[in-house]
Design a protein that fits this description.
Layout lengths: L5 H27 L6 H14 L3 E8 L8 E3 L2 E3 L23 E3 L3 E2 L6 E10 L5 E10 L17 E3 L3 H5 L10 H4 L1 H14 L2 E7 L4 E6 L2 E9 H4 L21 H16 L6 E7 L4 E6 L4 E5 H5 L3 H5 L16 H12 L3 H13 L11 H16 L9
């Protein structure tokens, strides 16, 4: 199925309105023709037209030059003061130089008096010889017109939006400053993953530089919630939200949520000048949003995002393949290792922690990568922290 683009949706609705209005106005124009030179009779005509047309706000008649020759009919009666008003330069009269146009539905514009989004339908009035002698104009408030029930769908293609020129011009005079969130990035990313996979969050936007996140929950999608870094570094935050199965409307596979977060972290720390400032993920439409220190913003599908490495974003010369983020950690497997080590007793756990803190690799962990050992270390540290005051210390 082809998704609606924004312009496609607008054009489809304009076509609907043109069909709705065009036939009726052509018939009314024929009734007005005999009275085109009689002001009082014209006012009677526009009153009748206003009384029979649905949705309209104003009805009036113009001469062939776009100057109003009738009063303006509205819900309160007729306004004679508008006679003589030159409407030829208004947006809805841009077709006035093309004598072949019979009916025109204007583009939406902001009305001069009420400052409301409006459209105007203009029907040409012709004499028996086919010469254009005037126009029947009908104004509509967009809020009061019938609307299509087909909602516009966001395009799937990659979109890039340039930001503030002042920020871009001073880009190389700035440098990333470590935020509080940066210092706790692994915990924060894990909490985000848990909120999405298990606690019903379907959309989030994380602000690395200001150490905060905005989330939207499936149970209350019209309200966003702001989480500070102090809340995000505490896994207990998950207890504040009801446990929910992974959202059935999600198009992002569960396994890819962690991969997206892993890539966010990599882009945050890849460079001290050009770095990720904020990022978002919506698991329902599969969209990833990225805002960099240059104030450039990207919107793309999660799958396309995951297919790119740091060499794509910053250039292979400056960022060799070695720094492209590896596959996310297999946390269930590592958690099993943590449980096994924790089960050997406090003394042995502390020896493992002490060795890792010195930069040594215990024999038990020699087959693991540095990232995996770092994860195991922090998990074991958390296990030991439950013993208040180090009761289980060596």
């Amino acid at each position: 199925m082809t998704l609606n683009t924004l312009q496609h949706s607008i054009n489809a609705h304009r076509a609907l309105l043109s069909d709705l209005l065009g036939t009726a106005l052509s018939d009314y124009a024929g009734r007005i023709l005999p009275h085109i030179g009689e002001s009082e009779r014209l006012d009677e005509c526009v009153r009748r037209v206003f009384g029979t047309l649905d949705y309209c706000k104003y009805v009036y008649v113009l001469d062939a030059n776009g100057v109003q020759i009738s009063s303006t009919a509205n819900r309160y009666g007729v306004d004679a003061e508008s006679r003589g008003r030159d409407r030829s330069e208004r947006p809805y009269m841009r077709h006035i130089k093309d004598a072949s146009v019979e009916f025109n539905l204007s583009e939406a514009y902001i009305s001069r008096n009420k400052k409301r989004p409006s459209v105007t339908a203009i029907q040409t009035i012709r004499d028996e010889q086919g010469q254009r002698v005037g126009f029947l104009g009908v104004d509509y408030d967009l809020r009061e017109l019938p609307h299509s029930e087909v909602i516009y769908e966001e395009p799937s293609q990659w979109r890039q939006i340039k930001g503030d020129p002042a920020i871009r011009s001073g880009l190389f005079a700035q440098q990333r400053v470590e935020s509080v969130m940066d210092r706790h990035i692994d915990t924060v990313m894990s909490v985000h993953e848990a909120l999405v996979l298990d606690q019903g969050v379907h959309h989030f936007q994380v602000h690395f530089s200001s150490s905060r996140t905005t989330i939207w929950h499936r149970d209350d999608p019209y309200v966003y919630r702001l989480l500070s870094n102090e809340e995000l570094i505490d896994p207990n935050i998950c207890l504040a939200y009801p446990r929910r199965p992974y959202f059935e409307r999600a198009i992002v596979p569960k396994v890819d949520v962690g991969k997206v977060l892993h890539q966010f972290k990599a882009l945050r720390f890849a460079d001290e000048t050009i770095y990720l400032r904020s990022a978002s993920l919506n698991i329902v439409n599969g969209k990833v949003g990225l805002n960099f220190s240059c104030d450039g913003t990207h919107y793309l599908g999660y799958d396309e995002f995951l297919s790119k490495g740091l060499d794509f974003w910053f250039g292979a010369d400056d960022f060799p393949q070695a720094v492209v983020p590896a596959e996310p950690l297999d946390k269930p497997q590592l958690d099993h290792v943590v449980e096994e080590i924790a089960g050997t007793g406090c003394m042995k756990v502390n020896k493992v922690l002490y060795a890792l803190e010195k930069g040594d690799t215990p024999a038990r962990l020699e087959t693991f990568t540095p990232e995996e050992r770092d994860y195991i270390y922090h998990e074991l540290k958390s296990v030991m922290d439950v013993y208040d005051g180090g009761v289980c210390s060596i």
